[in-house]
């Protein structure tokens, strides 16, 4: 206990008396990790970065909208736009940091060609990640979607399903835990990494590095020129962060700057 109090005291003493707080919501792997990486740089500028880790994709946005957090870092723009539309929120993208290629995983198959008729496929149940998953299944040649179906495609947009795949829509964070119960699961990279999966080795198919789903830092409208967030942008879009991403994730995460 004494050691903990001492560590807190030392950390507090390292910040200037005029330090400003910056509260961020983030998912654990990569997002919170990258924020922790730049914490010392921000502290040198008098910014006390406080990171709250979430395991879902809803509360980080709700809490920014309500002013309980200054910003968050976990989502891509299609998700944000869909969230704003459905929830009536007024959140804005400030800048993009990296891409996490979406992947198809299986614990029972080593190739997509091994799939049997009526195989069970689990995809995220939120609109944009579900659509993203269906587009990847189409890219794999497993289904065909209506020509007008875009990033918010749903199973109702499937017009050709040669293997009669049974699509199950599941909470995104749950997908790694049910991998052994389905033939395929389409999993966001952050949840795959948290579950000990290696996207480069374990995914049967990954999105390309040209994916439009860049992960962004988000805040409320009117905060675009907030000095704390501008300092965060400079820190996250630095050569240090780019080198860290490339060395640590070996292509499973791709810098977008």
Briefly say what this structure is.
The chain is α/β, with parallel strands linked by helices. The chain has helices spanning about 1-15, 30-45, 60-65, 75-85, 125-140, 190-195, 200, 225-235, 240-250; strands at about 20-25, 45-55, 70-75, 90-100, 105, 120-125, 145, 160, 165-170, 185, 205, 215-220, 255.
Q: What is the number of strand segments?
A: 13
> Widest sheet: strand order?
2-1-3-12-4-13
Q: What share of residues are in beta strands?
A: 15-25%
Percent of residues in helices: 25-40%
Shape: globular
Mean pLDDT: 91
Biggest beta sheet summary: 6 strands, mixed
Radius of gyration: 20 Å
Unreliable stretches, pLDDT < 50, 5 or more residues? 1-13
Give the helix tally.
9
User: What sequence of helices (H) and strands (E) makes up the elements?
Assistant: HEHEHEHEEEHEEEEHHEEHHE
CATH topology of the largest domain: D-Maltodextrin-Binding Protein, domain 2
CATH homologous superfamily placement of the largest domain: Periplasmic binding protein-like II
CATH architecture of the largest domain: 3-Layer(aba) Sandwich
Indicate the structural class.
Answer: alpha/beta
Tally of discrete structural domains: 2
Which helices and strands appear, and what pairs or packs with what?
Layout: H1 2-13, E1 20-27, H2 28-44, E2 47-54, H3 59-65, E3 71-76, H4 77-87, E4 91-99, E5 103-105, E6 120-124, H5 127-139, E7 144-145, E8 158-160, E9 166-170, E10 184-187, H6 189-194, H7 199-202, E11 205-206, E12 214-220, H8 227-236, H9 239-249, E13 254-255
Parallel strand pairs: 1-2, 1-3, 6-9, 6-10
Antiparallel strand pairs: 3-12, 4-12, 4-13, 5-10, 5-11, 7-8
Helix pairs in contact: 2-8
């Amino acid at each position: 206990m004494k050691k903990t109090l001492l560590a807190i005291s030392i950390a507090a003493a390292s910040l200037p008396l005029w330090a400003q707080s910056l509260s961020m919501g983030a998912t654990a792997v990569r997002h919170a990790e990258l924020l922790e990486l730049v914490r010392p740089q921000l502290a040198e500028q008098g910014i006390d970065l406080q990171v709250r880790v979430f395991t879902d994709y809803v509360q980080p946005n709700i809490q920014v909208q309500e002013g309980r957090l200054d910003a968050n870092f976990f989502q891509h723009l299609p998700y944000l736009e869909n969230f704003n539309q459905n929830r009536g929120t007024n959140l804005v993208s400030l800048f993009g940091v990296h891409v996490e290629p979406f992947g198809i995983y299986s614990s029972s198959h080593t190739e997509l060609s091994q799939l049997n008729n009526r195989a069970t496929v689990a995809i995220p149940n939120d609109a944009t990640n579900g659509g993203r998953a269906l587009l990847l299944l189409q890219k794999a040649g497993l289904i065909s979607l209506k020509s007008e179906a875009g990033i918010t495609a749903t199973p109702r947009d499937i017009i050709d399903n040669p293997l009669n795949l049974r699509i199950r829509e599941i909470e995104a964070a749950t997908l790694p835990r049910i991998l052994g119960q389905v033939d395929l699961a389409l999993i966001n990279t952050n949840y795959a990494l948290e579950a000990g999966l290696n996207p480069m080795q374990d995914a049967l198919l990954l999105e390309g590095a040209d994916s439009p789903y860049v992960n962004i830092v988000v805040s409320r409208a009117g905060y675009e020129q907030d000095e704390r967030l501008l300092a965060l942008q400079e820190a996250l879009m630095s050569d240090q962060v780019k080198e860290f991403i490339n060395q640590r994730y070996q292509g499973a995460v791709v810098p977008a700057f």
